[in-house]
Design a protein that fits this description.
Chain lengths: 286, 369, 298
């Protein structure tokens, strides 16, 4: 819209906004590289004079964690990191595979009524605490509590509507003629979709997968409710540090938080062009 | 009267000015077309006249008063965009009233002006239709009406026919003629389509690389292209232009381009035109002035290297070496690769000097056999 | 050509079946179970699921009439939504209009402004918990402005403000992104036409730009409203709903009912009330833009 340069008062506004936006992230990263003595200094230390990576090492060393001897947290974060990767990646894969098939089906073989997006949106509206209640009941009957398959099932279920609807918007954009040409060439429906449709929405598949991964990786409550001794994810572990020690493990928590955050910021950066579309369920095209 | 004086527009980051010291006078009540290929700066000229862009240098005057510093809305100039730029969230009525509502015109006045304009343009039946539901020619009339409601004295049109269906084009042409007659509007429009330019305008200004090559009455310009670039641009297909020199060959007068000789139907040249390879000229000949012939020593003989059937005739490209020319074949009889000869009458030749300017007056003495 | 799809129509629908089965198993079944439960008095600490007795609408009645804590949580969440969404909209729109201008490093600024959205809610909660400590950087800066020793987590109002600030920081980027995409898609010539016709910048915005981005604004509000209704992680780590229940949102209350007090049936009833309310709200909000969501092209 009518390209003009910033006017003089807008430049400081922009810079102030940038500072406010980045400050919490800056603070978190600074805390992660503070030596223990600086963690909770009064007044707070903004930039540590002797930055260190010791917090990251402590994080993966059970003995070092236990040495802080606070509130019964003696677990290193190793299990949580592995658990997060396992649960997020598997659930993302499942939700994408099922979502892709459903998206093609919805886009090509059925008429969408107003109810479909409403049902899908309502899946995203339901408070997770409420979804967790029946899961806990059913899972305790089927001994899926405190297991990764249980968590992966929940993650797949709650992200499936999202992946389906978003992928559908990508398939909708493709002209049917391309698939029809392949079908008339004698390919089966399935093959036509696998060889024509899927390669054409590669970009959409990738960005949707990233978004689903982001949702799974960030999820806290389901994992918290399901976990007991076997199951752990980074958010659960992070909350555990906060709960158990009332914050005395500042640096170590921050280190784990930074580790949790970096992959998401990178993922977000890669799919920046698709973010608006993904986050609005395909309602915005650009 | 609008005068563009040494009008210049430079965009940052571009080495060449989009509009380059352009001078043009537009008379009250006339319709003038700025004709040129895309990127020649014609749209920048419109934007500067209407006030969306400021000239880098030069002046725009209306009746002797500079308007460069006058704000857009006070210039009394209307612009209809190529894509019509309709406000799709409003009804036709909302669009027509827009220029008046934003100026806080009394409601009754808005209503009467909108109704007048609507009936003038035949929009009354669709006044309450959402603008997003209109067809191309309806959109154009709404865009016109939206501007006319504000009673501009000058109307600018950007490619007014290019987005329309053929039938709608005819209607628009009549509409614009009526506007001029009934409202006395001065109309300036830009186009890259010479048919569009020739069919609507009193005068044409041919533009290239930010400058005006020639301004001429529409009825005259085809007969008298002052510059070789203009000749190359006008006509369908445009004039054949040969570059080379005159020489005498076995008693014949010929024009040589590269290694090919064109045998000219003249006895001799007037003293203004010189012989010899040191004297470079552009020789022009319209495709429609070329006739096919059986004679043994024709103006030019070449192979058919291209055929474009236009229905009522074919455009035949003839080639010999690096020389190519186009001729018209009303009978559609030729085929690819065939060798064909053509001739032309002496009075149909145009001669341009080395710098591309048309040389006027008696230049040749015709053969009298 | 269309026959390749048309006949037989049911064959292609096989493709939607796997997704439907999974949804049925892991989404619909639990919801049906929960719905049934919400009509019982079941609590795992008291009895098995089979022994639970059917109490009809009692849970719902209790919630809507007698449970002030629930009603307060609903009101609080609504208030939070209104405040956060208004702030996020104004800030996001302001930022988006800045990005319509040209300036150096625009790509960097753009990415930087989207960063908060990418941070895990748990991490956001923890980070702001650090920032709002009595000896934290927020208080340090406020001290420079003459405001000494604020106790963010001990004062009801301040705790609520802290939650609002956290949410606004976290999600303004979403509004920014959506509104920026919307503004960028507004065609330029109608804006120029409006200027020529004499519209002031304000009139151009309200009469031409705003109607064009209205659907996008609605989409942004719906999506954010849905998220605020669910808000849990950030608040849980930041204030745990406290002090008292000053920052207790619907999600926090349901979580406490179900997993601290083990009133699963009662919690489920609360959840369905929330779902019903949100569905009605979303449906009403989305009516103006439903054609866009369904991609109907006339």
């Amino acid at each position: 819209m009518l390209n003009r340069p910033l006017s003089y008062w807008q430049i400081p506004v922009l810079i102030l906004a940038l500072a406010l936006t980045l400050f919490p992230v800056f603070w978190l990263v600074m805390t992660a590289i503070k030596p223990p003595i600086d963690w909770n200094a009064s007044p707070a230390i903004w930039v540590p004079s002797e930055p260190t990576l010791i917090n990251f090492r402590t994080l993966f060393d059970p003995a070092a964690i236990r040495a802080y001897g606070v509130g019964g947290v003696s677990q290193a974060a190793t299990k949580a990191v592995i658990g997060s990767i396992l649960a997020s990646v598997s659930a993302t894969f499942l939700a994408m595979a099922l979502g892709l098939v459903s998206a093609i089906g919805l886009s090509r073989y059925s008429r969408t009524s107003w109810a479909t997006p409403l049902v899908i949106l309502s899946g995203r509206m339901f408070p997770p605490a409420a979804i967790a209640v029946p899961f806990v009941i059913i899972f305790s009957l089927t001994s899926l509590m405190d297991t990764y398959p249980g968590l992966i099932a929940i993650y797949t279920a709650v992200t499936l509507p999202f992946s389906t609807w978003t992928l559908k918007s990508f398939v909708d954009d493709l002209p049917r003629e391309m698939e029809e040409a392949a079908m008339l060439d004698g390919k089966s429906r399935l093959m036509a979709h696998l060889t024509v449709t899927v390669p054409l929405i590669k970009g959409g598949l990738f960005s949707t997968a990233m978004l689903v991964f982001i949702l799974n990786w960030s999820e806290y409550m389901f994992a918290q409710v399901l976990s007991n001794t076997e199951l752990s994810t980074i958010p659960v572990q992070l909350a555990k540090y906060v709960t158990a020690t009332a914050g005395t493990l500042y640096g170590v928590q921050a280190a784990l938080a930074v580790l949790a955050m970096v992959p998401l910021i990178l993922a977000g950066f890669f799919i920046q062009g698709h973010l608006a579309r993904g986050l609005t369920f395909g309602a915005i095209k650009k | 009267m609008i005068e563009l004086i040494e009008l210049t527009k430079e965009y940052p980051g571009s080495s060449q000015p989009a509009v380059d010291r352009l001078n043009l006078t537009i008379f009250k009540g006339e319709t003038i077309a700025l004709l040129g290929p895309s990127g020649c700066g014609k749209t920048s000229v419109l934007s500067m006249i209407v006030g969306l862009e400021k000239p880098t240098a030069g002046d725009i005057q209306i009746d002797g008063q500079s308007i460069v510093k006058v704000p857009v809305e006070k210039r009394g100039i209307g612009l209809v965009f190529q894509d019509y730029a309709i406000f799709t969230s409003m009804t036709v009525r909302g669009n027509l009233a827009f220029g008046l509502t934003v100026r806080k015109t009394p409601k009754s006045e808005i209503a009467s002006k909108v109704n007048d304009t609507a009936s003038f343009l035949g929009l009354t039946p669709i006044l309450d239709v959402k603008a997003s539901r209109l067809s191309g020619s309806e959109l154009q009339r709404v865009a016109l009406g939206r501007t006319l409601v504000t009673r501009p004295s000058i109307l600018l049109l950007d490619e007014p026919l290019s987005n329309l269906e053929p039938e709608a084009r005819l209607a628009t042409r009549q509409e614009l003629r009526r506007l001029r007659q009934e409202l006395g509007l001065t109309i300036i429009y830009v186009t890259h389509d010479q048919v569009e330019a020739l069919s609507l305008a009193d005068r044409l200004a041919i533009m290239s690389f930010g400058r005006i090559l020639q301004v001429e009455k529409t009825s005259v310009i085809l007969e008298k292209p002052k510059l070789v670039q203009v000749a190359q641009f006008l006509g369908s297909p445009p004039m054949n232009i040969f570059q080379g020199f005159f020489h005498q060959d076995n008693g014949y007068l010929a024009f040589r381009q590269g290694a090919v000789d064109l045998r000219l139907p003249f006895k001799s040249l007037s003293p203004k035109v010189e012989l010899g390879s040191a004297r470079f000229y552009h020789l022009g000949l319209r495709p429609e002035d070329l006739d096919f012939t059986e004679e043994s020593e024709p103006f030019f003989r070449g192979q058919v290297s291209g055929l474009e059937n236009r229905g009522f005739d074919s455009v035949v490209s003839l080639a010999n070496g690096n020389l190519e020319m186009k001729a018209l074949d009303p009978q559609n009889v030729f085929t690819w690769g065939e060798t064909v000869a053509v001739k032309a009458k002496a009075e149909s030749f145009f001669l341009f000097d080395k710098s591309g300017r048309l040389m006027e007056g008696q230049l040749f003495e015709a053969n009298h056999d | 050509m269309a026959e390749a799809y048309g006949k037989p129509p049911n064959q292609g629908r096989i493709l939607t079946i796997p997704g439907q089965i999974v949804s049925l198993l892991v989404l619909v079944t639990p919801l049906v179970v929960a719905l049934y439960m919400s009509f019982t008095d079941w609590s795992p600490t008291r009895s098995g699921l089979k022994d639970a007795s059917f109490v009809g609408l009692e849970n719902y009645q209790e919630l809507l009439i007698y449970d002030h804590r629930f009603l307060q949580a609903v009101g609080r969440t609504a208030l939070l939504a209104v405040i956060c969404l208004s702030l996020e909209f104004v800030l996001g729109l302001g930022l988006a209009t800045l990005f319509l201008r040209t300036f150096r490093g625009k790509r960097f600024f753009f990415s930087a402004f989207l960063t908060p959205m990418m941070v895990l809610p748990v991490v956001v909660g923890y980070t702001f918990w650090m920032l709002f400590q009595s000896n934290g950087p927020v208080n340090q800066v406020l001290a420079l402005l003459g405001l000494q020793g604020l106790e963010w987590f001990r004062d009801s109002t301040l705790a609520f403000v802290a939650v609002v600030l956290t949410e606004v920081w976290h999600w303004t980027p979403l509004f920014f992104l959506i509104l920026f995409s919307g503004l960028n898609a507004v065609p330029e010539n109608p804006i120029r036409a409006a200027v020529i016709l004499g519209a002031s910048p304000r009139q151009v915005f309200w009469k031409v730009v705003f109607p064009a981005i209205k659907p996008v604004i609605i989409v942004a509000f719906v999506i954010r409203a849905m998220e605020v209704i669910k808000i849990f992680d950030e608040v849980f780590l930041l204030t745990r709903g406290g002090p008292g229940s000053a920052t207790e949102t619907i999600s926090l209350y349901i979580y406490k009912l179900a997993f601290n007090d083990f009133q699963l049936a009662y919690g489920a009833a609360a959840a369905f009330l929330v779902l019903a309310g949100s569905l009605v709200m979303v449906h009403l909000l989305l009516i103006p833009v439903r054609d866009q969501l369904l991609e109907r092209r006339d």
